[in-house]
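Quick one, tokens below:
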């Protein structure tokens, strides 16, 4: 039985996905006329004032160079005829010279303004907003970013190589040449609290902000269970052996298309031998040190960002709240 952690970004915003409406093209057009569109530019959703998403109408000039609309679903708090939420990839638009910036590094601080939008709106890295969006907007942003990225990176049919076209409101791509249907990808990642004798195993990857340590994590491989993926990743990265593994909670993580599976793993050994290709350092932290880290008082180590599942796992462990 998984736990629903409170405070996780992107998780459980209540968007009504109404998959049964996706095949009705005329119906979706009617919904778009009264609904809202979230433009996404090179992986960055539109924000207003850095607080909350910036939506435009389907006839906005901002969407002039956009790809087709992707139907995300219905806002449960609005009357049905106005409730539709769409996303639109406008990555082909180029801001003024010098203001370009692509998703790179750990966090992109740049905000791109658009001449057709008010000054307080701009395209920004979603990682900056883990704490500022309400749950529904957080789910909308994650879904939009993941779907838009999938369309951009899967334009051609994986079966025959011909260019495919979006269908089902953007939840499929169909190949006219061979008839194959393609579906959006979600890549499972295991992320784990590794515990032994009231100590927690944390690591840091090259390129992370200075001093930041977090739970170990890694992509699952075909043919693996969650449990075997956890044991393999922990052993590969740190040499530590683990026994019992439990899945605790999950979180969509659209950077670009992951699903984080938060786990608790009981270590059966404690000697650390890091794989320097995968991680830069790994350490065992006791409870008192972790309290300092989470409070921002540790001299050397910084906690992961609020809203990320690693931060919640560590906080729940400290509070003895893991079921
Ligand atoms: Zn094909």
């Amino acid at each position: 039985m998984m736990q629903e952690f409170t405070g996780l970004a992107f998780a459980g915003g209540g968007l009504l996905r109404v998959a049964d409406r996706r095949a009705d093209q005329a119906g979706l057009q009617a919904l778009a006329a009264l609904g809202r569109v979230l433009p996404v530019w090179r992986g960055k959703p539109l924000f207003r004032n850095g607080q909350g998403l910036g939506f435009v109408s389907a006839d906005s000039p901002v969407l002039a160079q956009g790809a087709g609309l992707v139907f995300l679903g219905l806002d449960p708090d609005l009357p049905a005829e106005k409730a539709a939420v769409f996303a639109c990839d406008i990555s082909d638009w180029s801001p003024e010279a010098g203001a370009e910036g692509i998703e790179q590094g750990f966090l992109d601080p740049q905000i791109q303004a658009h001449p057709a939008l008010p000054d307080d709106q701009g395209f920004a890295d979603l990682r900056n907003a883990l704490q500022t969006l309400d749950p529904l907007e957080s789910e909308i942003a994650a879904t939009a970013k993941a779907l838009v990225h999938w369309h951009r990176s899967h334009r051609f049919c994986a079966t025959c190589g011909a260019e495919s076209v979006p269908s089902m409101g953007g939840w499929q791509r169909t190949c006219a040449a061979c008839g194959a249907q393609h579906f959006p990808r979600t890549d499972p990642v295991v992320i784990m609290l590794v515990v032994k004798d009231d100590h927690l195993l944390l690591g840091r990857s090259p390129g992370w902000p200075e001093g930041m340590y977090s739970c170990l994590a890694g992509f699952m491989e075909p043919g693996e269970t969650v449990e075997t993926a956890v044991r393999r990743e922990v052993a590969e990265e740190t040499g530590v052996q683990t026994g019992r593994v439990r899945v605790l909670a999950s979180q969509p993580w659209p950077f670009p298309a992951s699903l984080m599976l938060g786990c608790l793993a009981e270590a059966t050994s404690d000697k650390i031998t890091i794989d320097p290709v995968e991680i830069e350092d790994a350490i065992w932290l006791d409870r008192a040190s972790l309290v300092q880290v989470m409070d921002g008082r540790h001299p050397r180590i910084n906690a992961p960002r609020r809203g990320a599942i690693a931060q919640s796992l560590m906080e729940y462990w400290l509070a003895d709240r893991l079921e």
